[in-house]
Amino acid sequence: MSSEGDLLHVVTADQISDRRRRFGKTIVWGSAGLLFLVAFLQAADHNGWLDIGFETWRPTLYAYVLWGICLCAAQVIERGEHGKRTLFVLPATLFVVSMVVFPLLFGLVIAFSDWNLSSPDGRQFNGLDNVRQMWTDPFYWNALKNMVYYTLAIIVEYAIAFGLALLLNAEIRARKFFRVAFLLPLMLSPVAVSWMIGKSMLENRFGPIARLLRELGVENPSFFSTPEVARMMIMLMDAWTYIPFMMIMILAGLQAIPRELNEAAEVDGASVWRKFWEITFPLMLPVSITAILIRIIFKLKLADIIINVTSGGPGGATDSVTSFIFREYRDRSNVGYGTLLAIVYLIIIAAAMTILIKAVDRWMRPRY
Amino acid sequence: MKVEHYNAIIRAQLSRRKMLKGAASVGALAAMGGMAGVPSALADSHGNLRAEILKIPGVGKGSPTDADWQKVGEMTLGPTKERVAEGEFEGVELTFMGLNNQNLHNFLFRGFLKPWEAYTGAKINWVDLAQADYNPRLQQAIATGTVDFDIIEMGAPFEGDTAGKGLLDEMPDWVEEQIEADDLVGYLQPPVGTWDGKKYRITIDGDCHTFAYRKDYFGDGAIGGASVPRTWQDVNAVSKALIGKEDPLTGLPAHGYLDPLKGWGGFGFYFLENRAAAYAKHPDDPAWLFDPETMKPRVNNPAWVQAIQDVFDLIAAGAYPADQINADPGTTGFQQFLAGTGSMLMWWGDIGSNARTSDTSVVGDVVGFGINPGSDRVYNSKTGAWEETYNEAPNMAYLGWGVYVTKRVSGDAKKRKAAWSAAAHLGGKDISLWMSAYPSGFQPYRNSHFQFDEWEAAGYDRAFIEDYLLSNAESYNHSNAAIEPRIPGIFQYYSVAEDELAKGYAGQYASAQETADAIAAAWEKITDQIGRESQIALYKASLGM
């Protein structure tokens, strides 16, 4: 056993022969060569240059899997103990590359294509035409504007979630029951929420809420007729589903605050409000920011309730970007344009979230 | 031949050769007129079969179950047995792609085809899809060259996408004989089901929108006036006149015509078409959605604009129930009309079959049927002028479901025969009677479906069934029926039109004309994207031009 090198992380330092290293290199390059060969033959067959009889792209997939196995094996063959450490990450990396990075690249190709599934010409590269179309598409901009409203509603959701978390953190009767009861909406599928609430309880003729309002003197209660009310109802249903999620995160944070801090403040004579504003709220900021960021990500994906209840109406007032892309892609088979919209949305989300995280990070960093 | 008879022959060790010889002798005798009683006996047993299957499970005796479907499937195997020997398709596996709407469609087909599988030895694998998933699944399979099904339940509007791209197998002549295709109602005869003169479709459904109205709203002293509205002008006038009155059945506010103002994945556009058909479908012109020479949309011509304006007028007058802007066709049909809200509606035949059988319907005793209302004037696209003459044009919305066989089986004679045999079993004359009389998702579509005595004998109320069936029959056989264009991407046109209409109904466009112009502009884009020249050719072909 060697007494040199990284003794902290490596148990043994292998003596690896040149022959073994060459073998490792050979299987990696050999399988890579095979992969390229099969992919080339497959492409040639697909484009009609050769007639090999490949019906699907499976041969290329198998060659890729073989290359992946050889690459992993070669780590150990060539580098011994060091290679074994690599194996903790490499298979997962290869999997992510195949399932995320490659489809994303493929998606980019589609995004710059004119591809209507009904077109006899199939997919055609069309440069920036889809971007130009997006730029002048009032439906997309309207949906983006709606997303701003939906996202801003998170501030109210956060306040409610914080209040509920404080209540559940207090010494109240049946606390465990309420904790479970308040979590129930989160366990429901948004599709179920849309049908149970949006389509049944809020049904304007027989729905119990409409009946109650009628009893209270509202002549024709309607929940989805005007843009503002319809948007508000969608926000409420979505909030009802996801407030428990924020609440449970905040509650976990509240329970982690050391009791001594509040006790010390009490000894100093701090009021309830002072204790909250000077101790609880600042200590809860990291948890709050995390909860809000995750909630924003959830909110930006909002679609199911809208698709089920309003289909984006009235006149696009409740449309979200995802529900619009859903119609463009699924109802109209406009794959190229739909993909471009999705990718632009992804970029907007990634950029906005990065900026937000940076800003929050700077704001929250303690300054001594 | 019934199953038990066939089994008896097998038990008696009668060989297939002997059996065929016997059948040939019977046929020869019959041809010579030597057995005068045979044809009538056969007809009697056939008539008995139809009466017998209509007793399964019996009208008013609950919804049919899988056991009932299997029983019907077994009793109607006769035509299959005439053409296929027992066990002939041993080892054949077929994939059938269809819908699972309301637990019907594929659920029935499974039951119907179980005895067929047992008899022929073939095995069927099923791909069940929800209605909303159907279009994208089919489009993706076509576009990516991954058609992984041998038999498909498909609507005629998709013939452009499939037959037009050479993905379907041509129907053999024996299938046409087995299903007795000449019994189909007029509008389902070719060119529907054909492409470039070749036949591809086994029809299992007929589709058209018919007019349903509340009889208690109309008549002497009734709140809607003495007679049922005959034109769309009347429909609008009555709808406005009913504002502020009370529904005679429910005591809630009375309403007139129910337009769905929310989209339904493209299907909602059919409902504007109902109004537009009377104005835009000129008897001398088969086209009414596009100009067949240029594919220029007609959706913004004065006829279509009038249809949109009619809806705008009712919105402005406050004639619709509250929240109508959020009502899709499912809502207008099932949550409003059948539940007692509103007095007039256009829908598929489901309203008729549900009015008396659905637990949620309250209008069973007061519902009447008719064909699509007409108009006092019709727009002539060729002259660009209105003609002051009465016109009516029933909307053949969707043209009904059919069963098609894909090219996947074309290279294998045994598999091909098996696929067509399975499809033909579902499209048989007798099984179709059962499907049109019981919950199946399919409307009557054969001339033989309109023998009212059969329905009455099965337990239906004569007056109700005559009213309901005649509204279908008169629509199907109308000389100026508005036929669905079977062009690729037709639902893309409808879907984008729904989005623009929603904006118009919400007041985001200044006028009906502006709304119609926005639809036309979106349609032009789709045509350019799919390919104008090919669309022109396919549109003309689909209209039989």
TrEMBL record, chain A:
<feature type="transmembrane region" description="Helical">
    <location>
        <begin position="61"/>
        <end position="77"/>
    </location>
</feature>
<feature type="transmembrane region" description="Helical">
    <location>
        <begin position="279"/>
        <end position="298"/>
    </location>
</feature>
<protein>
    <submittedName>
        <fullName>Sugar ABC transporter permease</fullName>
    </submittedName>
</protein>
<keyword id="KW-0472">Membrane</keyword>
<feature type="domain" description="ABC transmembrane type-1">
    <location>
        <begin position="143"/>
        <end position="358"/>
    </location>
</feature>
<feature type="transmembrane region" description="Helical">
    <location>
        <begin position="23"/>
        <end position="41"/>
    </location>
</feature>
<dbReference type="Pfam" id="PF00528">
    <property type="entry name" value="BPD_transp_1"/>
</dbReference>
<keyword id="KW-1133">Transmembrane helix</keyword>
<feature type="transmembrane region" description="Helical">
    <location>
        <begin position="335"/>
        <end position="357"/>
    </location>
</feature>
<comment type="similarity">
    <text>Belongs to the binding-protein-dependent transport system permease family.</text>
</comment>
<keyword id="KW-1003">Cell membrane</keyword>
<dbReference type="InterPro" id="IPR051393">
    <property type="entry name" value="ABC_transporter_permease"/>
</dbReference>
<keyword id="KW-0812">Transmembrane</keyword>
<dbReference type="InterPro" id="IPR000515">
    <property type="entry name" value="MetI-like"/>
</dbReference>
<feature type="transmembrane region" description="Helical">
    <location>
        <begin position="239"/>
        <end position="258"/>
    </location>
</feature>
<keyword id="KW-0813">Transport</keyword>
<feature type="transmembrane region" description="Helical">
    <location>
        <begin position="89"/>
        <end position="112"/>
    </location>
</feature>
<feature type="transmembrane region" description="Helical">
    <location>
        <begin position="180"/>
        <end position="198"/>
    </location>
</feature>
<feature type="transmembrane region" description="Helical">
    <location>
        <begin position="147"/>
        <end position="168"/>
    </location>
</feature>
<dbReference type="InterPro" id="IPR035906">
    <property type="entry name" value="MetI-like_sf"/>
</dbReference>
From TrEMBL, chain B:
<dbReference type="InterPro" id="IPR006311">
    <property type="entry name" value="TAT_signal"/>
</dbReference>
<dbReference type="InterPro" id="IPR006059">
    <property type="entry name" value="SBP"/>
</dbReference>
<protein>
    <submittedName>
        <fullName>Substrate-binding domain-containing protein</fullName>
    </submittedName>
</protein>
<dbReference type="Pfam" id="PF01547">
    <property type="entry name" value="SBP_bac_1"/>
</dbReference>
<dbReference type="InterPro" id="IPR050490">
    <property type="entry name" value="Bact_solute-bd_prot1"/>
</dbReference>
<keyword id="KW-0574">Periplasm</keyword>
<comment type="similarity">
    <text>Belongs to the bacterial solute-binding protein 1 family.</text>
</comment>
